[in-house]
UniProtKB/TrEMBL annotation:
Residues annotated as signal peptide: none
Species the sequence originates in: Siminovitchia acidinfaciens
Name recorded for this polypeptide: Class A beta-lactamase-related serine hydrolase
Ligase recorded as keyword: no
Coiled coil regions in record: none
Keyword line: Hydrolase
InterPro entries: AmpC-like (IPR050491), Beta-lactam-related (IPR001466), Beta-lactam/transpept-like (IPR012338)
SUPFAM superfamilies: beta-lactamase/transpeptidase-like
Entry GO MF terms: hydrolase activity
Beta-lactamase-related domain sequence ranges: 44-339
Keyword Hydrolase: yes
Pfam families: Beta-lactamase (PF00144)
């Protein structure tokens, strides 16, 4: 099918998806395939300004954190099998992983945090044993500022752990906070500075930055409004809960640069990327979770091989995947908390559209 027809098919699918959901105030989509000469750049929703508007990428940030660790491992500065107790202070480690009366903290390795098999709680999605959940606090106490350590201590006090390290899978933003601490310990620099120096600057991601810091070049557009239900939380100080697992602001242009660099082994060696993709926990049926990335894999009948792809997605409906079958990069967001699975499903619909329209 001609490129103009592909553009029209994808654009119609995207706009229809946004228009039928009043909770989506702004959404963005980038579809790029060098193999098929496709480059689609879209924005939709009553509050969308431009396709290159910066937005919070949520847990897509975890892939950036895991790339930083890949670089540190390649430089010989740490190992995936290192225990986290080698790097973290006692105020972080104390009572961190108590499960059924036993302390498993000293058994947690870096790889357990990266692929969410540590057994630690998730301060974002888990239900606290008492009081309000973190998403409720984020909305109800908008002017409260959280340091990463305060967030960890809140989780220790209010949440239960799930199993000993390495035994199962449980998604954990708590674990990614700890990974941020470890990166700072190894490099001697703030997490946002390591991101800038090791990823943003080398890849010319000039509009990308860590939350509450400035990009290399100011975007001509304001940061897209982020919603939790009908509440605009974009400027809430309470968004400081986001750290190494969700604190990046970027654009679809910049994310395309990052994902292309990963696919073409430009910022990590191929064997490092294969390690990140291969050592997985079981996230959902058809989705394994490696080191900061999701692998969408074949499940007979339910998930045909043609949908196989890898990248990451966030709870706001954000997604960033590479789809080898069509050599396509699928990047976007719905900018609404609680839309994680909806974002993945929509990404697969785009992949399906490409598969049908690029057949000769």
């Amino acid at each position: 099918m001609e490129k103009t027809n592909i553009q029209m098919e994808v654009e119609q699918l995207f706009k229809k998806r946004v228009e039928r959901d009043p909770k989506i105030h702004n959404a963005y989509l980038r579809v790029h395939s060098e193999k098929h000469g496709i480059d689609i750049n879209l924005a939709a929703g009553k509050e969308a300004i431009d396709p290159q508007q910066p937005y919070y990428i949520a847990s897509v940030s975890k892939l950036f954190t895991s790339v930083l660790f890949g670089q540190l491992v390649e430089q010989g500065l740490c190992s995936y099998d290192d225990k986290i107790s080698q790097y973290l202070e006692e105020d972080v480690l104390s009572n961190l992983h108590i499960y059924k009366g036993k302390d498993y903290t000293n058994e947690i390795k870096i790889k357990h945090l990266l692929n969410n098999t540590s057994g630690l709680h998730d301060f974002v999605e888990d239900k606290p044993v008492k009081g309000k959940s973190m998403p409720n606090l984020l909305v109800d106490e908008p002017d409260r500022t959280w340091t990463p350590l305060e967030t960890i201590n809140w989780a220790k006090e209010n949440m239960d752990n799930h199993f000993p390290p390495g035994e199962k899978f449980h998604y954990s933003d708590t674990g990614y906070h700890l990974l941020g601490f470890i990166i700072e310990k190894i490099t001697g620099s703030p997490f946002h500075e390591v991101l800038r120096k090791n990823i943003f600057e080398p890849l010319d991601m000039k509009y990308s930055h860590f939350s509450r810091t400035e990009p290399a070049e100011a975007s001509p557009f304001e940061v897209a409004k982020l919603y939790m239900h009908d509440t605009d939380i974009t400027n809430n100080k309470s968004l400081s809960i986001m750290y190494a697992g969700g604190g990046i602001v970027s654009t679809t242009d910049d994310l395309l640069k990052f994902m292309r660099a990963l696919v073409h082994d430009q910022i990590l060696k191929k064997e490092t990327i294969e390690k990140m993709k291969g050592d997985c926990g079981k996230f959902f049926l058809g989705i394994d979770y490696g080191y900061g990335l999701m692998n969408i894999k074949t499940v007979p009948v339910l998930m045909p091989a043609k949908y196989n792809s890898w990248g990451n997605a966030g709870s706001t409906g954000s997604f960033m995947f590479y789809h080898p079958e069509t050599d396509a990069y699928l990047i976007g967001t719905m900018n609404q908390f609680g839309y994680g699975q909806k974002g993945i499903r929509f990404m697969l619909q785009i992949a399906d559209k490409l598969l049908k329209t690029t057949k000769k």
